Every structure is written in C-alpha cells, then in structure tokens.
C-alpha cells in the first residue's frame, strides 16, 4: 500500500547554498508527521517543495503513489507561518470566501465547530487575538475537506493556554482521519502531537522514527541533573555531559541506584539533584548542538 505522501530525494539549490540535500521520507495515512530542525536546517524549504510553493532542483513528490498534481492540490490544506487576512470582513465571510475557491467543500458549520469559532463569526478579522487568528487560519486550511493538512509552526507566538487549545484542535482533526504534516520549534508540541518525527540539519534528515523509539535509542535510562556548583570531584568515570550555559551536569543512567551511589562521593550534596525522563528537547540539542544559530 503506497504512502499517503512521499518525498523522494528532494534537492533545492540556491546560489551558493544547498538548502535541501537529498531528503526522502514517507507519511502513512492518518498520522501526524513532525518535521523538526533548527533555523536554516531546510525544513520549511522541504515543506514548501512538497506543497508546490517552491520548485525542487531535483527529486519528486508522490501523493498516493502518483506524482503530486491537481488531485493533491484539491485535497490539501495549508496553514502557512504567516497569512494575510482580508481587512473589513468577518470571520464567517473569510471562511465562505476561501471555501468557494474549491470544488471540494467542507460543511462550514462542522469546520466552525471543529475550530471553536462559533462565538467569533461576526467579528472583524482585525479584532482577533493571536490564538483566535490561528484557529481561523486552521479553519481556512480545512474548508476543502483536505485529506492532508500542512501546519507550518502554527503555535509560534501563542501564550501557553492558546497553544494547548490549538493542540486539542489538532488532535481532534487527526482523530477524524486527516493526515497532518507539522513543522515546529517546540519539542513538547512534537512529543504530544506527532506519531513520527524527522529531525533535519544542514539540509538532511539526521534522525527519524517515533518519539519513543528515538529517545530509547539515544538514552538507555533516566537523566540525573546535578548543579555544577555541587560537584567537588572529577566525574570522568561517569557517563555525563556538562552544559556550561546552564551550569548543570547531566548523567544518563540505566541504573539510577548505582549512578547515585557512584555520584555520592563526587558531590557536595545530593539534595539539589533532579531525576527525569529524557525529552525530545534533549535529543534535539544532542543532535543539532546547543549553539544559537542566526
């Protein structure tokens, strides 16, 4: 059975820059697939090639086993990083305007309900808050009953409450069988929403799998955090890494009891330690580095 969506050996060259360097992956029906990476990793360019917004230098995009064409465009919804809304019209008028652009049309009341827009239908687009605008953008992406929806960093700039609300909307859409392609800088968001992720860096995919698979392969246990100021002896015998910017020593321990026993003589006190599960943020920083990129 073919993937719902497949990228094969995508390459994008700009003068002096290889933005996408042979990216390939497949997305099954009904999953949320996350594409993650630091600034400049090539993820947005990759998504824009798949969407048909940017032409590839080489490679191909397949939709249900065939080259992506008019059927793909008709059955796809896109929520861009930034979208300009028409001024001086209401939320309902906006949805109706975009819906009429398609032959394939969703039930507008169902879209309004799914995106919790019922109380905003008569509000001018200019009067919407950030979270309300994102819900409207998502609704615009759903007006053609898409089988695949692209969400490009949809919660950037939202407050925690608005982000959680948006997550609930995405879960609801996915539960109804819609395939979702998500790009995000928020690792907690990817861990909550994504069935599978691919991490990109320097134009290539450097890791791919389910969040649990990737974490288990990288971290055979829990992480013990010790404030660097409490360390009084060399920890070279322990598996650890020092995060200078945070002043923390992190020890990956498959046997926490043994690690604590070994750690005891080397630290001033154990009162300030933290023991936690590894997260996608740990994995992301390990694979792509801690340095800030332009």
Structural features, described:
The protein is globular and about 70 Å long. With 294 residues, it is α/β, with parallel strands linked by helices. Helix 5 runs parallel beside helix 6. A hairpin with a 4-residue loop joins strand 12 and strand 13. The strands form three sheets. Strands 6-7-8-3-9-10 form a six-stranded mixed beta sheet, sandwiched between helices. The chain has a four-stranded antiparallel beta sheet with strand order 2-1-4-5, with helices on one face. A four-stranded antiparallel beta sheet has the order 12-13-11-14, covered by helices on one side. It has two domains: 5-215, Rossmann fold, CATH 3.40.50; 220-277, no CATH class. The chain contains ten helices and 14 strands.
Q: Output the radius of gyration.
A: 22 Å
Q: Assign the CATH superfamily of the largest domain.
A: P-loop containing nucleotide triphosphate hydrolases
Number of strands: 14
Figure out the total of helices.
Answer: 10
CATH class of the largest domain: Alpha Beta
